[in-house]
């Protein structure tokens, strides 16, 4: 799926498709790690307004941080010029966070579940983020477009 | 805005690394620099005090994984202390307690190092 990069940093999304959603907000930032704090704050504010507990709010913010860190590292390969779109929508029973980029395709599902002892022996460091995302959220779905771009959808039930 | 701070001090031949704030992919390189320096200076017995750390992501966890073996090969270790339940939970989810020692108090970790030597 290819969307046009948006100019504004945050905005409310209003269209017919969102009529049944209680909440729909979007943040667009460049692919730099200093934006992770902004992304976490945006996510926490949204999760708070849904009435999640502090513990769950922290889990969601960490999962979104991990997803965006992957986008910066893998999709944009640390280039600071890419756009990351974080869209948060809330319907009756769930909060959905969609993270979209326009960088190189990457397949996080190819990453096996980490075994900490094996990691230690093999001096491996990566792959922990995806595992954490799956542990922290109720649903995690990855998709890549035919050209450039990826999308991760994280879901937490209310 | 200072979102992360790392400082080192010494106590009974052990280096204590104090973490403060938010440790993520943006701030993890600062911690990497500290570990690189410790290794350069041949300081292999390290206690990381998490008392003032509010947040950690896998980028932060990866730093400990990257350096622990060098410490252990040189008769040292990286031991963790004073972690909040929230931060400990992330380490626990990834199975770190299988490979690392966690202490509630910094003094216990220092004592453990000095018992060995």
Explain what the structure shows.
- The complex is a heterodimer of chains A (158) and B (117).
- Helix content of chain A is 33%, strand content 26%.
- With 158 residues, chain A is of the alpha+beta class.
- In chain A, β5 (139-144) and β6 (150-157) form a beta hairpin.
- The termini of chain B are far apart.
- Chain B is an alpha/beta fold and 117 residues long.
- The longest helix of chain B has 16 residues, at 58-73.
- In chain B, strands 1-2-3-4-5 form a five-stranded mixed sheet, sandwiched between helices.
- Chain B has one domain (4-116): Transcription Regulator spoIIAA (2-Layer Sandwich).
- Chain B has helices spanning 28-40, 58-73, 85-93, 106-116, and strands at 4-11, 14-23, 45-56, 77-81, 102-103.
- The chains are: A alpha+beta (158), B alpha/beta (117).
- The interface between A and B is medium-sized, with 29 and 24 residues.
Q: Which key phrases capture this entry?
A:
heterodimer, A: 158 residues, alpha+beta, Heat Shock Protein 90, 4 helices, 6 strands, disordered N terminus, B: 117 residues, alpha/beta, Transcription Regulator spoIIAA
């Amino acid at each position: 799926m290819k969307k046009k990069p948006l100019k504004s940093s945050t905005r409310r999304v209003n269209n017919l498709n969102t009529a049944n959603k209680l909440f729909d907000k979007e943040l667009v930032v460049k692919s730099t790690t200093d934006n992770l704090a902004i992304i976490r704050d945006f996510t926490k504010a949204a999760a708070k307004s849904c009435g999640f507990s502090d513990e769950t709010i922290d889990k969601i913010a960490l999962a979104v941080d991990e997803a965006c860190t992957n986008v910066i590292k893998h999709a944009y390969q640390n280039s600071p010029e890419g756009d990351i779109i974080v869209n948060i929508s809330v319907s009756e029973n769930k909060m959905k966070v969609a993270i979209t980029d326009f960088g190189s395709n990457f397949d996080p599902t190819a990453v096996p579940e980490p075994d900490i002892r094996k990691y230690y022996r093999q001096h491996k460091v990566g792959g922990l983020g995806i595992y954490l995302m799956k542990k922290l959220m109720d649903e995690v779905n990855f998709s890549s477009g035919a050209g450039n771009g990826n999308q991760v959808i994280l879901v937490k039930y209310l | 805005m200072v979102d992360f701070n790392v400082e080192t001090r010494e106590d009974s031949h052990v280096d204590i690394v104090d973490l403060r704030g938010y440790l993520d992919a943006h701030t993890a390189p600062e911690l990497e620099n500290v570990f690189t320096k410790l290794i350069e200076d041949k300081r292999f017995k390290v206690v990381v005090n998490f008392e003032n750390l509010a947040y950690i992501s896998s980028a932060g966890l990866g730093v400990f994984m990257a350096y622990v073996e060098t410490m252990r090969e040189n008769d040292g270790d990286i031991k963790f202390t004073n972690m909040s339940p929230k931060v400990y939970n992330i380490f626990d989810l990834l199975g770190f307690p299988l490979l690392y020692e966690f202490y509630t108090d910094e003094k216990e970790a220092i004592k453990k190092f000095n018992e060995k030597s």
